[in-house]
């Protein structure tokens, strides 16, 4: 297993629209495992492949306190939704910011599992919110998009400033 680097807003790669997973093979299963590890270590309750710069329709989530409820959703589709839930959301790609967002309170989702077989699941409350948030990532959308332009700009400026202050680590070893 490996921990993956998480892209931070306003990184333009977070705006990429993910493409469907064509085949659930070992590389996809490895990716899901690495994403779960990365999410738990962060710590977070959900992570979309987009956030680790893999632009495939895959997300992981676990809203339990003891890592007992991992979900892996491949090519997820919401087939039913109802109710209204307003929760304070955060995002591993928007570290340090939490804002209220309105979403459906109950959803029914169809996805492929790690065995490549389709399944359906129902989610409500926090898990429903989490899955909707992660599915937005697969569309290149972030929770800050639901906020006012003023709030979004404030968050963007603070994160850009933090990035400038942090020493930059090179993406790969220097060529010699
Ligand atoms: Ni997020």
Structural write-up:
- With 176 residues, the chain is an alpha+beta fold.
- The longest helix has 17 residues, at 149-165.
- It has three helices and seven strands, in the order αβββββββαα.
- The strands form two sheets. It has a five-stranded antiparallel sheet. Strands 4-5 form a two-stranded antiparallel sheet.
- β6 and β7 form a beta hairpin.
- The structure holds nickel (II) ion.
- The site of nickel (II) ion has 5 residues, from α2.
Entry keywords:
176 residues, alpha+beta, two-stranded antiparallel sheet, 3 helices
Write the SSE topology.
Blueprint: H1 26-41, E1 46-48, E2 58-61, E3 71-82, E4 85-89, E5 99-103, E6 106-112, E7 118-124, H2 125-138, H3 149-165
Antiparallel strand pairs: 1-2, 2-3, 3-6, 4-5, 6-7
The structure holds nickel (II) ion.
SS field, number of helical segments: 3
Query: Which descriptor suits the 3D outline?
Result: globular
**What ligands does this structure carry?**
nickel (II) ion
The low-pLDDT segments are none
Give Rg in angstroms: 16 Å
Distance between the termini: 29 Å
What string gives the helices and strands in order? HEEEEEEEHH
Q: What's the story with the biggest beta sheet?
A: 5 strands, antiparallel
Percent of sequence in beta strands: 15-25%
Regarding quaternary structure, how should these chains be classified?
single chain
- Class derived from helix and strand content: alpha+beta
> For the residues shown, what is the average pLDDT?
95
Helix content: 25-40%
- The count of strands amounts to 7
* Strands in their spatial order, largest beta sheet: 1-2-3-6-7
């Amino acid at each position: 297993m490996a921990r993956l680097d998480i892209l931070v807003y306003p990184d333009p790669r977070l705006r990429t629209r993910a493409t469907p997973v064509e085949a659930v093979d070992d590389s996809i299963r490895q990716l899901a495992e690495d994403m779960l590890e990365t999410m738990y270590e962060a710590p977070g309750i959900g992570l979309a492949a987009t956030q680790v710069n893999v632009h495939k329709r895959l997300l992981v989530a676990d809203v339990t306190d003891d890592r007992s409820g991992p979900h892996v959703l491949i090519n997820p589709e919401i087939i039913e939704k109802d109710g209204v839930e307003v929760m304070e959301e955060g995002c591993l790609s928007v570290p340090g910011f939490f804002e209220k967002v309105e979403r459906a309170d109950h959803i029914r989702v169809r996805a492929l599992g790690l065995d490549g077989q389709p399944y359906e699941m129902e989610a409500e409350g926090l898990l429903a919110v989490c899955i909707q948030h992660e599915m937005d990532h697969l569309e290149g959308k972030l929770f800050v998009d639901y906020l006012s332009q003023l709030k979004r700009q404030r968050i963007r400026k603070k994160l850009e400033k933090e990035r400038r202050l942090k020493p930059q680590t090179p993406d790969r070893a220097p060529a010699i």
